[in-house]
Specification:
The chain is of the alpha+beta class. It has eleven helices and eight strands. Strand 7 and strand 8 form a beta hairpin.
């Protein structure tokens, strides 16, 4: 089951009183693809939609509104569920019940304050989708008209989320990309369980990202240590080639010999191994002295004589 279906299932489980049934059905009908004076056509690929819509129609309108139901199997194994309400009399009754005019708009008379969440849930059942949050944070509603998209954005803003809008080929999409706002909206629509799943996924992703960052940081530090060690060994070998070890102080000579014997140790580890242990900064200071001596040999261009 996709994450979108999990959201739909959670919404279905909260349609538990008459006001919610009315508000949910209003959202499903208002945002369907086709709504004219003579026909209402609602389509979905969701089995959950298929289990909800006819029940809500019967609950709100009884047997007065006949439904033509078509289920079209597809090659990919999915089914397209098509519900048609035909005839001006039936359509007029529905439009009159929900105050739906020729240019569709959200009529807040249909939505007491405690029913707005269920209305949005109905809109989601008809034209909503959500990407698997393991891949991306994206929840969207695809509205059939610009006016309905604008009205939907106003409602979403009123409940504290801030949608973006984009024009699709035959529709307008209002969408959210911020995980916190998606979670707030899921909760408001009655999909609290999905909000908890979203939070868990986000935490897991953040933990993995932090681990990856630490690993990358560790690798960068290792590369830095290796690069520094190679440069130090190069300097020491140049000093040896120029018979310069005998000119070094005992402290510098001891450190140079330790580095050649332990090419992968950190500065701190080398400092701990000295006959008189010193800290990392002290070891680094001594390597700078060795580097200065090696640089002097490079400038002199000598190769075996001092």
């Amino acid at each position: 089951m996709s994450f979108s279906d999990n959201v739909r299932e959670s919404i279905r489980s909260t349609i538990n009183d008459q006001d919610k049934r009315f508000a949910c059905l209003y959202g499903m009908l208002l945002y369907c693809r086709t709504l004219t004076k003579d026909e209402i056509c609602v389509k979905s690929e969701s089995e959950i939609f298929d289990s909800v819509f006819p029940i809500l129609m019967k609950t709100v309108f009884g047997a007065a509104i006949p439904l033509e139901i078509t289920r079209k199997p597809r090659k990919d194994g999915t089914i397209l569920y098509i519900y048609r309400i035909c005839g001006r009399e039936a359509v007029t009754k529905i439009r009159g019940m929900f105050h739906i005019h020729e240019e569709r708009h959200i009529d807040m008379r249909n939505l007491p304050t405690n029913s707005i969440g269920m209305f949005l849930g109905g809109v989601f059942l008809t034209c909503g989708s959500m990407t698997d949050p393991n891949k991306d944070y994206h929840l969207e509603f695809t509205a059939p008209t610009e006016a309905l998209c604008s009205d939907l954005c106003d409602v979403l803003l009123s409940v504290g989320v801030h949608p973006n809008v984009t024009k699709r080929r035959y529709a307008y999409a209002a969408y959210l990309k911020v995980s916190e706002e998606i979670g707030d909206l899921l909760t408001f629509m009655g999909a609290q369980r999905c909000t908890l799943d979203l939070i868990d996924i986000k935490i897991d992703k953040e933990v993995k990202n932090n681990v990856n960052r630490l690993n990358n940081c560790d690798m960068a530090n290792i590369d830095k240590v290796i690069s520094a060690s190679e440069k130090q060994q190069e300097d020491i070998r140049l000093i040896i080639q120029n018979d310069g070890m005998k000119e070094l102080s005992s402290d510098l000579r001891e450190l140079a010999e330790l580095r050649l014997e332990n090419p992968h140790l950190s500065l701190q580890d080398l400092g701990d191994m000295l006959s008189r242990p010193i800290g990392r900064s002290g070891v680094n200071h001594r390597f700078r002295k060795l580097a200065a001596i090696a640089e002097r040999y490079r400038k002199e261009g000598t190769n075996g004589s001092s």
